[in-house]
Specification:
By secondary structure, the chain is an alpha+beta fold. Helices cover 53% and strands 13% of the residues.
């Protein structure tokens, strides 16, 4: 990990580390430290897990709670509902999904054993990385709650999910970030501030690579101001036919890569994760045959193939589904 990598991560987190080595440590897997020596991210992960829980609970209390006239604290939701929301925000799938959106797993520092297994794509590894980064911020900031909360809200985008439910279809901050990284390999720049100490709303200036000027958004929180600016930027890109398509992301349908292409689209939030259903039977001559079905929630059709080789049946079913997802005809 070089200085440019560290600077890009700091820019993404909107937090400047006092000790950049602890930021790098958050990305070091045990497999690497076992081979090369030094510290890894496991203790930071433990710390980050607890800090993340605290910040999410604090945010839920701020978002849903209020003091009544008699001074008692009241919440819109009871304990059970709050627990359900918290679990959705911090479960493995969510944290891994957010790491995918942020593109941070590409910076992981791994030993040979992890590299051979491609563990950077595993859900629990991404979850560990998310928590380790939060732990690094907690330690580096000397447990400054405001700093930790700012980073967690930036990484997790809590307000978006509280306001819109657990669906990323119109999370413009994420969409703009993915566009900028894909097109230019750079992050969008957000400058969020209060005009003066009496201002009621935050102002956000969003700058995108190779586009003159900036997009201005406003909101009663930093998150809302970012989202407003990002929505305006997205509208501009859409109007000028500059948005990425699914085919831009994965290329034309390629039967040899169809399984991976479908998975990549799912990881980037374009479709639900494909599900493969297998059944083995024998033909009239007693030869084994594999029946494979490929299903994607939200798609009109599913596809199935019956072939002697299990992997071949899966590949064919994935290819047909990929063509449907990308809008190709069956001709």
């Amino acid at each position: 990990m070089n200085n440019r990598d560290l600077q890009q991560i700091e820019q993404l987190l909107e937090y400047e580390f006092n000790e950049t080595m602890i930021l790098q440590q958050a990305f070091i897997r045990r497999s690497y430290s076992q081979e090369k020596g030094g510290e890894n991210n496991e203790v930071l992960e433990f710390i980050g897990d607890k800090a993340l829980d605290f910040i999410v609970i604090k945010k839920l209390a701020e978002y849903y709670g209020n003091f009544k006239k008699d001074g008692e604290f009241s919440s819109k939701y009871k304990e059970g509902k709050l627990t359900e929301i918290k679990k959705k925000l911090v479960n493995s799938s969510m944290l891994a999904h957010r790491i995918n959106i942020l593109g941070l797993n590409k910076y992981l520092i791994m030993g040979n054993s992890d590299i051979k297994k491609n563990v950077q794509d595993e859900e629990h590894v991404k979850e560990d990385l998310f928590e380790a980064i939060v732990g690094a911020v907690a330690i580096d900031s000397s447990w400054d709650i405001d700093e930790i909360q700012d980073v967690v809200e930036k990484m997790l985008d809590i307000e978006y999910y509280l306001e819109n439910g657990f669906n990323d279809d119109e999370n413009y901050v994420d969409l703009i970030q993915q566009w900028s990284q894909k097109q230019y390999g750079e992050l969008p720049l957000y400058n969020v501030y209060l005009e003066d100490e009496n201002a009621e709303e935050y102002t956000c200036e969003l700058t995108l690579p190779d586009i003159d000027g900036y997009f201005e958004g406003e909101g009663y929180s930093k998150s809302q101001a970012r989202m407003d600016a990002a929505a305006k930027a997205y509208e501009y890109l859409d109007k000028n036919n500059m948005l990425l398509t699914m085919e831009d992301e994965v290329g034309k349908p390629d039967e040899s890569r169809a399984i991976n292409q479908l998975q990549e689209l799912a990881q980037k939030g374009y479709i639900n994760m494909p599900e493969y259903i297998f059944e083995e039977y024998h033909d009239d001559d007693g030869n084994p045959v594999w029946h494979c079905e490929c299903h994607v929630d939200g798609q009109e059709f599913y596809y199935s193939y019956d072939l002697p080789v299990k992997k071949e049946a899966k590949r064919k079913a994935a290819y047909s589904m990929l063509r449907q997802v990308l809008g190709y005809s069956d001709d």
